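=== RUN LOG ===
request id: a7f3
mode: sequence -> structure
chains: 1
length: 329
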Amino acid sequence: MTSAGPNPSQSHYQVIFHCIESASRFVPPVISSAPALQSLRDLVPSLPAASAMAETDDGPPTSAQQTLELVGVAAEMLSHLDESSSANPLGWETVSGIGRVLDELIGQLGATVRREKSDLVRGLYVIIDPQVTGGRDPLTIAQAAIHGGARMLQLRDKLRDKGESLPLARELQTLCHQAGASLILNDHADVAAIVGAAGLHVGQTDLPVEQARQVLAPHQVLGRSNHEIEELVESERMGADHVAFGAIYHTDTKGVGRPPQGIDRLLVARETAQTPLVAIGGINAENAAPVIEAGADAICVTAAVGSAAEPEAAAAKLVKVIEEAGGRV
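=== RESULT ===
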């Protein structure tokens, strides 16, 4: 597939036409719905042909992510298209119509990409909280968690201003990127967008899903906390890509003001949830097995790793328990 990146020697319209025409040839998986692709295909014959791009066209995009990148470039270039330029063969109404189709397609392709990432929600998920490190550097805890086999990290920094926690977020993103793990930011959609994190996690009273989506990139995932079965349903209806449920056991890390859910309620949550399910709250190596056996895709811990005398060994032990219980690591 030809690179979507604009070449300074090419006009804006050349790039827009190339990206649209290439994206229109993407064939999505049967299970993915991107009806706006047909609208894009219908547009192409009506567009003035642009001169050939300098690069060799080696075929249509082969993934939703590649197609999303092409459509994103087209939308960005379209917003800067100079109506008065002789290099712009489009009228205002045509530009507006193309923009609507591209916006719709970005939303649909973003949802497809996020669904394809659902397999990343698995195994050990460690919250990095600067207040739960035993006085150690949070980055040190994060490195130990990754070395121990954690597949996901979440930065939860409730006390410091965002400007103060941003350097740590950048370091964690670099760490996760190099390790093939995923970084999730708690609460702060803007920080997640800035550092290019895998996504965001919100609580019941945090930024609503719809508003968070306006800040996040289309491919960034969003998880939401839930304490009731009805909340799980609501979170998925809102568009959460995965859901957290807890507290499963008693926990002192974060007061929830309600009794633990227990394994029986987790089983109901598993039957109810249509997206990946993260179990959280009071989980450690001694009690994690029943959580995985009940169907949780991932277990989320804070103190079990952050407060451990040897965080890497604690993480590795949890990963072993998850694997022995039949979980994906």
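=== NOTES ===
The beta strands are 123-128, 152-155, 182-186, 199-202, 221-226, 242-246, 277-280, 298-301.
The chain has a mean pLDDT of 91.
=== END ===
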